[in-house]
Specification:
Layout lengths: L1 H9 L11 H11 L3 E2 L2 E2 L1 H11 L6 H11 L1
Antiparallel strand pairs: 1-2
C-alpha cells in the first residue's frame, strides 16, 4: 500500500533532479493542517485515518505526522 499510495500522490513525472518536491508539500500540508491535497486526503491524514480505523493506541494525529515525515 505505501509505495503505491506515494506513486499516486506524486504522479508519474520523470523530471530531472530537483523535480520531486512532494516532501515539501507533505510538510506544508502538516503545517497548514490541510485535509486534502488534489482532492485526496493529505498524506499525513491518510495515515492518521489508517491508525484510527485499526483502533491502535495513541494519538492518531501524532501517528499520521510521524509516519508521513518518515516516508
Amino acid at each position: 500500500m505505501g509505495w503505491r499510495y506515494r506513486l499516486r500522490q506524486r504522479g508519474s513525472s520523470s523530471g530531472g533532479p530537483g523535480s520531486d518536491h512532494s516532501p515539501f508539500l507533505t510538510h506544508d500540508d502538516m503545517i497548514d493542517r490541510s485535509e486534502l491535497r488534489r482532492g485526496r486526503p493529505a498524506f499525513y491524514r491518510h495515515f492518521a485515518e489508517h491508525h484510527a480505523t485499526h483502533g491502535w493506541h495513541g494519538p492518531t494525529d501524532a501517528y499520521g505526522d510521524a509516519t508521513a515525515l518518515n516516508l
